[in-house]
Amino acid sequence: MMAEIIRIATRTSPLAMWQAEHVAHRLQELHPGLQIEMVGMVTRGDKILDSPLSKIGGKGLFVKELEVGMLEGTADIAVHSMKDVPMEFPEGLHLPIILEREDPRDAFVSNRYSTLDALPEGAIVGTSSLRRQTQIRARYPHLQIRDLRGNVNTRLSKLDNGEYDAIILAAAGLIRLEFQPRITAYLSTEQSLPAIGQGAVGIECRRNDPRVENLLAPLRHAETTVRVRAERAMNQRLNGGCQVPVAGFAELEDGGLRLRGLIGFPDGSAVYTCEQRGCVVDPESLGIAVAEDLLAQGGDKVLASLGIHA
Ligand SMILES: NCc1[nH]cc(CCC(=O)O)c1CC(=O)O
């Protein structure tokens, strides 16, 4: 009998490779006889490095090529950072598995200053995310935001070259790549509400492929799944993608679910926040309720200013 095989499509950035290899190791532990193959792919998001993410546009910048691979049968599954996964999947694909979340917070990295609060007037902070930019501008109007692209390693080199006084990245990516010692300070979720899905990894595969889904099933983390579902429902109602300054973070609390959401103008002139509690059996309703509240407060004007219809 031929050994069973599973092929994992992955981007070739160090973080994507780490995540794909993490899934490979977990699968190998669960299924010792399984043969696992990595299929490296380059996405449009990896190629376009010279313009801000928020200006490139197009949903699923980092996932499209992997999806084509699965549909054409050159790969069976794709491992994604949930933060980068669009709401809609192509016909024939879905994302049934979300793994346990890593630290969801943003991290402050600087070679000269200890925290965001310690940065002097005019200091340059690097980030490529409208979400981080919006929250920093609102709270620290004396700082300058400058765009920062590239994979985690590139971003750290740009800081070390002296192009920035500090940079903000997801703690999860730094921790996974063993750069935890470079984290100068963790931003609290009050200081910087994380991105939808930040710190969580998901696995996309073909629908109607029970062989593969059975292999993956033990990797599913129930708590992370319910939290990310609430966050993504909120984001979907807000038409959020990486072009929209939206943050959302759900936690389990006393057996229920608490979701905090945020939307604001990228210049920091107004930021709207909302916190609500709901039931773990229906995370989508909670997400939609928070989104509706944010829209009513003024989030609709944020979207309109970006040319997006709520
Ligand atoms: N947009 C790129 C991206 N996608 C996922 C992560 C970090 C890992 C995660 O959130 O799971 C990063 C880098 C960053 O924001 O610093």
TrEMBL record:
Its EC number is 2.5.1.61. One of its GO terms (molecular function) is hydroxymethylbilane synthase activity. Binds 1 dipyrromethane group covalently. Its cofactor is dipyrromethane. InterPro entries: HemC (IPR000860), Porphobilin_deaminase_cofac_BS (IPR022419), Porphobilin_deaminase_N (IPR022417), Porphobilinogen_deaminase_C (IPR022418), Porphobilinogen_deaminase_C_sf (IPR036803). It catalyses: 4 porphobilinogen + H2O = hydroxymethylbilane + 4 NH4(+). Keywords: Porphyrin biosynthesis, Transferase. The modification S-(dipyrrolylmethanemethyl)cysteine is found at C242. Residues 6-213 form the Porphobilinogen deaminase N-terminal domain. Pathway: Porphyrin-containing compound metabolism; protoporphyrin-IX biosynthesis; coproporphyrinogen-III from 5-aminolevulinate: step 2/4. Pfam families: Porphobil_deam (PF01379), Porphobil_deamC (PF03900). SUPFAM superfamilies: Periplasmic binding protein-like II (SSF53850), Porphobilinogen deaminase (hydroxymethylbilane synthase), C-terminal domain (SSF54782). Residues 226-295 form the Porphobilinogen deaminase C-terminal domain. Tetrapolymerization of the monopyrrole PBG into the hydroxymethylbilane pre-uroporphyrinogen in several discrete steps. Monomer. Belongs to the HMBS family. PANTHER family: PORPHOBILINOGEN DEAMINASE. The porphobilinogen subunits are added to the dipyrromethane group. This is Porphobilinogen deaminase.
